[in-house]
Structure formats: C-alpha cells, structure tokens
Amino acid sequence: MKYHVPVLLNESIEGLNIHPKGIYVDATFGGGGHSAAILAKLNGGHLFGFDQDSDAKQNGFDSEQFTFVHHNFAYVKNFIQYFGVGGVDGILADLGVSSHHFDDAERGFSFRHDGPLDMRMDRSVKKSASNVVNEYDERQLTDVFRNYGEIANARRLAQEIIACRNAAPIVSTEQLKHIGQKFCNKQTENKYLSQVFQALRIEVNNEMQALKDFLSGGLAVLKPGGRFVVITYHSLEDRLVKNFFKTGNVDGVMEQDFYGNVSSPFTAITKKVIVPSDEEVKENNRARSAKLRIVEKNG
Questions:
Q1: pLDDT tier, 1 (very low <50, low <70, confident <90, very high otherwise)
Q2: Which one, of 29, 93, 19, lies nearest residue 292 by Cα?
Q3: Distance separating alpha carbons of residues 47 and 22, to the nearest angstrom
C-alpha cells in the first residue's frame, strides 16, 4: 500500500548527496517514497526507516540494505546507537502528515471525513484528540489552540467546546467541525478548521517536543560532512528547524567563543529555502506549503 506521494523528491534526494556505501536515515518513512529513492542509490550502504505508525511497516522493503524501525523519530539517536552504527551520512525527514492519514476517516485527522476524533500517529498511545477535547480545562484548551494552531479566538473556541461537551461528549470529527464553523465564514472555513485540527494533532502526538528531540539526536549521530534534510509544512515546525540549522539549538541563540567568534554545527547548502514548483503543487496539492532546508555538518 504505497499511500504517500513524496514531496520535493528530487530536491531532497539530491540534497542528501548520497554515497553508495553510506548509512542513511529516513526519519519519516510513511509510504516509503523517499526511502525507495535513497535505496536505489545505495550499493553496499544501509538505510534505516523510522515510523511510529504500524501501518507504515507494510510498506517496508525486502532488502538487506534496509531496516524498518517502528518508533518515533525522537529516538533516532538511541536506535542508531542500538544498531551499533558509529554515525550516519545523511538524515531525511518529511514532517508532513501522509495522505493516508488524511484520507482514512477512521484515523480522525481530517475534518473532510466524518470519523472518530482520534489523530494518534501511534495507536498504542492512550491519549487521543477526543481525550484532549473532552478532558482538558479551558486554560489547557486555549493554550493548545493558541500555541499550536495560532488561533486568535482560541479562548472563545475553548469555551464553546466545553459548553458543547457538557451536553454530550465530543467524539467525532464532524462534531468538532460543527463547533469550529461557528467561528469562521465560508471564505475562512478551510483555513480555520485546518488550524483547529492541526493544534489537536500536535498536542496528541507531542510533535513539537518530538521534533526537538529528533533534531538534537540527529545532530549527535550525523557524521562530519553528513547532510541533514528536512521538509516542513507550518510555521511552528519550520521555525524550530530554521533556528536549529542556523545555530545548533531550537531557540536560535548563536553561540560565541571567548573572542566573540560565532560557531554553528552546520553549514547551509542552499542560501534560500526550497519550495515546490507550480507544477508539483498542481499535481500534489499537499505540497503547497512545503519548505525544504538542507545543511551539512561541520567537521
């Protein structure tokens, strides 16, 4: 079941600067599109594909050069060390939610389909979007929508959710959609509901902390001269990646030595962020907000 059209495929693979005998990590394996392109360039090398979603495992490859790791990419450092690998030559991460997740109503990621309010990437985790919506208090809900959805009327939305859940539990995407529609018009509906669902998804899957752990873990296992390639889709994650690639920390604080010399663990490979072509966006609408950043680890 190859369910994800890889975004910025040629640009990201080229950015990895793949050596046939190198060791690489596809930190967001998904449908295996990026991984297939990496494997095609390996001859004696190895690829580790990480994904916390058990559905992704069936997209794995029957190859001695490939290992599927059924875990969150936050643990990339732990597992690379576990497999006895001294370091890797390149890391790729496509932070977008796969088409499979959006299109499968039972996973509850999209307001375009009626289904259970779930949104768990790893279905062995207990907390779902329904738990967040029905159990968080007003302050907690406001913080989720404001911080992760960048929603201006986050408090009013939280209050309305609490009023509705007092009448009956909110357990479906359709219920949440109807609540959200009260705070937007037809012109802004898609954007607003996307922000609401994004905020809940980030909270359920602890995405911001996982990304921070992944970036620091990736830096630790990347060899000098190795490439770090990341595709982002919204401002929250892009800000973290941009800061980390520029300074080596997610806060974007540039470190200086005693003499005031600025140091960074990376060198940018491209001066400007890479975005999809008009043609790619036309063929794959989910690529429209993608941003690709490529850096090389300094020696």
A1: very low
A2: 93
A3: 8
pLDDT band at residue 2 under the 50/70/90 scheme: very low
Distance CA 197, CA 115 (A): 13
In CATH, what is the architecture of 9-99+209-297?
A: 3-Layer(aba) Sandwich (3.40)
**How far apart are alpha carbons 19 and 122 in whole angstroms?**
32
CATH topology of domain 126-204: DNA polymerase; domain 1 (1.10.150)
Rounded CA gap, 261 and 256, in Å? 5
Question: Which value, in Å, is the radius of gyration of the alpha carbons in the chain?
Answer: 20
Least confident residue range of 108-112, 168-172, 222-226: 108-112
Is the confidence at residue 260, as pLDDT, over 90?
Answer: no
Give me the amino acid identity at 225.
G
